[in-house]
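All the exercises in this workshop are built on plain-text protein records. Sequence and backbone structure share a record, each on its own labelled line. The question running through the whole workshop is how a given chain folds. The record below serves as our worked example for the rest of this section.
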Amino acid sequence: MNYLAHALLAGPDDDYRLGALLGDFVKGPLRPAPPGLSAALQRGLALHRRIDSFADAHAVFCRSRQRISVERRRYSGVIIDVFYDHFLAVHWARFSEQPLESFTAGVYALLAQRSPLPDRLAQMLPRMRQEDWLAGYRELAAAGRALDQIAAHRISRRNSLAGAGSELSSAYPHFERDFLDFFPAAVAFSEQFRREIEGGS
């Protein structure tokens, strides 16, 4: 899952949500706790990792990955993460009563209030907030640009990820159906995880 999905699946608690958003930036074991991480932030990070594992093993997510062309298949997980954020933004009202722009404004405010953030996230945040990357995923072109940026700036080796947005437009209804089949299961999984961990299970 990508940023928008992780922010929503974390639930309403700010610490869970922040921890979930930090998931791509904090690596390594969570026990003992990395410096500066509260127990609630650790749970948010743990949720992020569990959601990623859930997605990677889910038959529908795997089906989406198989739709990616052979030359880009190595990066299919990254590609589908972004594609699913696009569909989440498009179908937002199915999964949240809060308007998308209000939700994303709250996410940016939460990130801005909490410091210090990991360096890469802190560097990204002003532009992310100014351009409203999260709500911007509604636009097909924005999803493609996000993948191009990942290809150029987050993968050090030569890669075939650039231009992957074309794969979404070429099989759009199939990816959309995959997302709509998958995401309710991800919501249920996340809610169950939060209930279990808050109940001490």
Summary: The chain is about 70% helix and 0% strand. Residues 3-198 form one domain.
